[in-house]
């Protein structure tokens, strides 16, 4: 899936996020309604094969929730 196919919910969505057009932690929505998270790789624990852990600031998650109207 190309990044262009995702709806960016944070940073560059007109809400004045800290990243603007930058490439820092972000939250995206896919066309099927699922969520994709971009962040720093976390080693908090070893996830199952095929899965990964990322860490994002709480403010990024709050911005995504606001953008979704939740």
Index terms:
70 residues, alpha+beta, 3-stranded antiparallel sheet, two-stranded antiparallel sheet, 1 helix, 5 strands, globular
Could you write a compact summary of the structure shown?
It is built from one helix and five strands, in the order E-E-E-E-E-H. It has one helix spanning 58-68, and strands at 7-8, 26-29, 35-38, 40-41, 54-55. Residues 1-25 are annotated as: Disordered.
Describe the 3D structure.
- This protein has 70 residues and is of the alpha+beta class.
- It has one domain (3-68).
- 16% of the residues lie in helices and 20% in strands.
- It contains 1 helix and 5 strands, in the order βββββα.
- The chain has one helix at 58-68; strands at 7-8, 26-29, 35-38, 40-41, 54-55.
- The strands form 2 sheets. The chain has a 3-stranded antiparallel beta sheet, covered by helices on one side. It has a two-stranded antiparallel ribbon with strand order 4-5.
- Strand 2 and strand 3 (35-38) form a beta hairpin.
- The protein is globular.
- The mean pLDDT is 88.
- Residues 1-25 are annotated as: Disordered.
- Secondary structure class reads alpha+beta
* Total count of helical runs of at least 4 residues: 1
User: How much beta, percentage-wise?
Assistant: 15-25%
How many domains? The number is: 1
Query: Order of strands side by side in the largest beta sheet?
Result: 1-2-3
Topology as a string of helices (H) and strands (E): EEEEEH
- Total E-strand runs: 5
Rounded to an integer in angstroms, the radius of gyration calculated over CA atoms is 12 Å
Region (Disordered): 1-25
């Amino acid at each position: 899936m190309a990044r262009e196919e995702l709806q960016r919910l944070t940073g560059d969505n007109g809400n004045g996020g800290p990243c603007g057009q930058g490439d820092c932690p972000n939250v995206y929505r896919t066309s099927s309604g699922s969520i994709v998270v971009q962040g720093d790789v976390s080693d908090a624990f070893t996830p199952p094969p095929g899965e990964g852990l990322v860490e994002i600031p709480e403010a990024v998650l709050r911005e995504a929730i606001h953008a979704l109207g939740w």
